[in-house]
Amino acid sequence: GESVGLHLPTLSVQEGDNSIINCAYSNSASDYFIWYKQESGKGPQFIIDIRSNMDKRQGQRVTVLLNKTVKHLSLQIAATQPGDSAVYFCAEMVIGQGGKLIFGQGTELSVKP
Amino acid sequence: GAVVSQHPSRVICKSGTSVKIECRSLDFQATTMFWYRQFPKQSLMLMATSNEGSKATYEQGVEKDKFLINHASLTLSTLTVTSAHPEDSSFYICSASSSGGGQETQYFGPGTRLLVL
C-alpha cells in the first residue's frame, strides 16, 4: 500500500506486481519532465522523459503518463523487481530557461520478494 | 559516456572550517553545471547554476558568500562551503549538461556526503 511519511511517501509492492508512482508538478509553464531513480547514497539516475506535447511515453518496463490539465505525472513500472527498490523523483523544466530542473517530493518504492 | 564524478565522496570536518567539493565531467565538455543539496528523506534542492567562465546564479535563500562556486573550465566546477556549521551537513550533488538554454540532458554525479561536527 501507499503511505505518507514525515517527508517521503512510501509505496510497498510485491515482486512481479506493477507499480504506479505519482507526481504533481508545480509550474504550468513546464514543458519537459523527467523521472529519476535514486538509490541510497547515490546520485539520481535517468529513467525516462517526456515532453509536454505528448501524454504517454514507453520505455523498457516503464511508462510515463502526463496529464497537463491537472499537472500530474505518473511512472508505471511493469513486473517490479527487488532491484527497482529506490526513491523515485519527478523533475520539471521549462525549455530554454537555462536547463534548470525542479525536483518533486519523491516516493520511496519498496519491493517485497 | 557522459560520466560525472565528484570528489570527495564523503568528508567530515570541524565546525568553522571550509570544505571544497569538486565536480568533473569526464568525457564531455559541460557548459553548465548545477549544484544541489539533499537532506535525509527529502528531495534535491537546486542551490546554484554555474556557467563556465561566468559567475554562478544562486537560488533564492542560498548565500553566495557561504557557498562559493567556481566553474573555471568546461570540465570542472567546485563548490566551497565556507565556515561550515553542523546545519550544513548534507548530501551535495552536482550535475552537468553540454549545451545551454535548451532541453539539455543533465548527468548527475554520485554525490558528496558532508558531515560537520
Please describe what this structure looks like.
The complex is a heterodimer of chains A (113) and B (117). With 113 residues, chain A is mainly β. Chain A has no helices and 11 strands. In chain A, strands 1, 2, 4, 5, 9, 10 and 11 form a 7-stranded mixed beta sheet that branches. Chain A has a 4-stranded antiparallel beta sheet with strand order 3-8-7-6, with no helix packed on it. In chain A, strand 7 and strand 8 form a beta hairpin. The model of chain A is unreliable at 1-6 (pLDDT under 50). Chain B has 117 residues and is mainly beta. Chain B is globular, with a radius of gyration of 13 Å. The mean pLDDT of chain B is 92.
Helix content of chain A: under 10%
Weakly predicted, low-confidence segments of chain A: 1-6
Structural shape of chain B: globular
- Give the end-to-end Cα distance of chain A, rounded to a whole number of Å: 15 Å
Of all protein chain pairs, which has the greatest interface, and how many residues does each chain bring to it? A-B, 27 and 29 residues
Radius of gyration of chain B: 13 Å
Specify the biggest β-sheet of chain A. Answer: 7 strands, mixed
What is the arithmetic mean of pLDDT of chain B?
92
What is the straight-line distance between the termini of chain B? 37 Å
Shape of chain A: globular
- The number of helical elements of chain B comes to 0
User: Could you give the order of the helices and strands of chain A?
Assistant: EEEEEEEEEEE
Low-pLDDT regions of chain B:
none
SSE topology sketch:
The complex is a heterodimer of chains A (113) and B (117).
Chain A: E1 2-4, E2 9-14, E3 19-24, E4 32-38, E5 45-51, E6 56-58, E7 62-67, E8 72-77, E9 86-93, E10 102-103, E11 107-112
Parallel strand pairs in A: 2-11
Antiparallel strand pairs in A: 1-2, 3-8, 4-5, 4-9, 6-7, 7-8, 9-10, 9-11
Chain B: E1 4-7, E2 10-13, E3 19-25, E4 32-38, E5 44-51, E6 57-58, E7 67-73, E8 76-81, E9 90-97, E10 107-108, E11 112-116
Parallel strand pairs in B: 2-11
Antiparallel strand pairs in B: 1-3, 3-8, 4-5, 4-9, 5-6, 7-8, 9-10, 9-11
